[in-house]
């Protein structure tokens, strides 16, 4: 029988059906995967259960290509309170990397030193319609994923929910920690995850090396010492990040370390960050942290058609704002912020306010004169911009709504109820029809299908368009433009788009 699901295919595939919720024995999940490990080629594991929870007493190792198809994340939970659930063991001889696809399962309340639920090394892993809840580890509360610089592997997460992973003991990646990997995340929700141990980075996601593509997703109320939602740190190799049509709200960087690293939503060090059609609201930095929404340090930063509003600085640093940029000429030193609105952000610390009330929105913390670094803010509305050589103000009010559900898809696994949070221009706003499509790559605004990127004579400044006749109803369906591809093809497509975009942008500078 031939099985073909998300890039895992074999003409000699066997199907093993789980009929028992017991840890071991006939019909158990452990027995099914053990049989699949012993059978060369890609096999299929499905479920025919009268129970809904499998409690494991030890980790299950996966050593062969496999497709695990659960009945749905609301219908099956796998848990293991003192152990990791799955370890994906590397093949003995590269490049014969494993192809693993998992769908329709909830992973909960598991723990380990790394990868509370899943640890994957040198494997391609696809996760569809999965939920990871309250898993814990020292790194990667739900998942750790690693490969090599020479042969990066792909992690693809789609239509999935990560909630309550990590929290107190995580040092990197409250939900996901990835190294030298090609990570693709689409239509997924990350809520209340945390990396709160001393110096913890990436409340939801921590990546180092490789590439990260995030699209049509949401990050709400995640916490880290730096990178409340996402931390990108290039240790061994450059990291390329592209974020599209995504919401960041209520994330927190606590800033307990003295290094000043922050980013209430995103922290990026020596990385290329390209962010488009994305909203940052109600994100916060405290302690010594900088950048209530974004703290960027080296590489290239591009913010196109974004809305950054209602974020708050509560830290002791006097080099601070909602977006802080420390461009490093040797690492690219490019800061591009076209057709974006950065306004209505606040600084609450007395020492910062005394230093300059103009630091609330954008702070470029290195001189651009004679340094080789560049700053481009064409067609943007930035209420306050500050550099070491001076400050500037954009007069007037951006006239934005409050952050709320103004239409769009609901990211996450089936049954997810978290709305896509956006701020829309109010009638008469100076943002309406005031932008340019020169840098835009998307045909819709942040909310996706049914919300054109241009309504009227020109594109609006910011992540969403003003809709004179009101917003279409919210849709729970995934965006229509999400392709159904294998993990390898999705990751390769993501990398191709990332590199093509940056080459085009750098040539035009």
Number of helices: 3
Number of domains: 2
Estimated radius of gyration:
23 Å
**Average of per-residue pLDDT values:** 83
Sheet/helix structural class: mainly beta
Describe this protein's structure.
This protein has 509 residues and is mainly beta. It folds into 2 domains: 1-191 and 479-509; 246-406 and 418-470, no CATH class. 7% of the residues lie in helices and 37% in strands. It has a 22-stranded mixed sheet that branches. A hairpin with a 2-residue loop joins strand 44 (384-387) and strand 45 (390-393). Residues 1-11, 350-358 and 472-509 have low confidence and may be disordered.
Please give the structural blueprint.
Blueprint: E1 3-5, E2 8-10, E3 15-18, H1 29-38, E4 43-47, E5 53-55, E6 60-62, E7 66-69, E8 77-79, E9 86-88, E10 98-103, E11 106-108, E12 111-114, E13 118-121, E14 123-128, E15 131-133, E16 136-139, E17 143-146, E18 154-158, E19 161-163, E20 166-167, E21 176-186, E22 189-191, E23 194-195, E24 205-215, E25 218-220, E26 223-224, E27 230-233, E28 239-244, E29 247-249, E30 252-253, E31 266-276, E32 279-281, E33 284-287, E34 294-304, E35 307-309, E36 312-315, E37 323-326, E38 334-336, E39 341-343, E40 346-347, H2 350-355, E41 362-364, E42 374-376, E43 381-382, E44 384-387, E45 390-393, E46 404-405, E47 421-422, H3 487-508
């Amino acid at each position: 029988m031939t099985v073909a699901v998300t890039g895992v295919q074999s003409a000699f595939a066997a199907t093993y059906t789980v009929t028992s919720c017991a840890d071991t024995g006939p019909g158990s999940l452990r027995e099914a995967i053990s049989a699949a490990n012993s059978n060369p080629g890609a096999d299929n594991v499905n479920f025919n259960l009268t129970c809904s929870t499998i409690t494991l007493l030890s980790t299950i190792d996966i050593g062969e290509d496999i497709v695990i198809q659960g009945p749905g994340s609301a219908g099956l939970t796998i848990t293991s309170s003192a152990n990791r659930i799955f370890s994906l063991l590397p093949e003995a001889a590269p490049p014969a990397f494993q192809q693993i696809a998992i769908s329709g399962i909830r992973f909960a309340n598991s723990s380990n030193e790394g990868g509370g639920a899943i640890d994957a090394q040198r494997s391609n892993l696809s996760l569809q319609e999965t939920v990871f809840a309250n898993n814990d580890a020292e790194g990667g509360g739900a998942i750790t994923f690693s490969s090599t610089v020479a042969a990066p592997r792909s992690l693809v997460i789609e239509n999935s929910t990560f909630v309550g992973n990590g929290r107190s003991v995580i040092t990197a990646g409250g939900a996901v920690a990835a190294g030298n990997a090609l990570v693709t995340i689409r239509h997924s929700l990350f809520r209340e995850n945390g990396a709160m141990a001393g110096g913890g980075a990436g409340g939801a996601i921590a990546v180092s090396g490789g590439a990260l593509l995030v699209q049509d997703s949401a990050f709400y109320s995640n916490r880290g010492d730096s990178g409340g939602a996402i931390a990108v740190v290039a240790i061994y190799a450059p990291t390329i990040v592209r974020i599209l049509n995504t919401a960041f709200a209520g994330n927190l960087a606590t800033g307990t370390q003295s290094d000043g690293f922050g980013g209430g939503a995103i922290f990026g060090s020596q990385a290329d960050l390209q962010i488009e059609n994305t909203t940052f609201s109600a994100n916060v930095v405290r302690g010594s942290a900088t950048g209530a929404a974004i703290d960027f340090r080296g590489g290239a930063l591009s913010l196109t058609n974004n809305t950054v509003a209602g974020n708050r600085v509560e830290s002791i640093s006097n080099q601070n704002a909602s977006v802080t940029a420390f461009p490093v000429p040797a690492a690219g030193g490019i800061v591009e912020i076209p057709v974006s609105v950065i306004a209505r952000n606040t600084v609450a610390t007395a020492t910062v306010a005394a230093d300059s009330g103009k630091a609330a929105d954008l702070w470029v913390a290195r001189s651009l004169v004679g340094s080789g670094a560049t700053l481009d803010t064409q067609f943007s509305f930035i209420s306050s911009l500050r550099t070491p050589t001076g400050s500037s103000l954009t007069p007037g009010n951006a006239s934005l709504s409050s952050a709320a559900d103004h239409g769009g898809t609901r990211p996450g696994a089936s049954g997810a109820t978290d709305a896509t949070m956006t701020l829309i221009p109010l009638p008469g706003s100076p943002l309406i029809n005031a932008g340019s499509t020169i840098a835009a790559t998307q045909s819709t605004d942040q909310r996706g299908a049914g919300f054109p990127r241009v309504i009227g004579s020109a594109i609006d400044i910011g992540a969403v368009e003003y809709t004179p006749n009101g917003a279409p109803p919210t849709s729970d369906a995934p965006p229509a433009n999400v392709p159904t591809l294998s993990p390898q093809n999705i990751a390769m497509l993501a990398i191709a788009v990332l590199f093509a975009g940056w080459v085009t942008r750098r040539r035009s500078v």
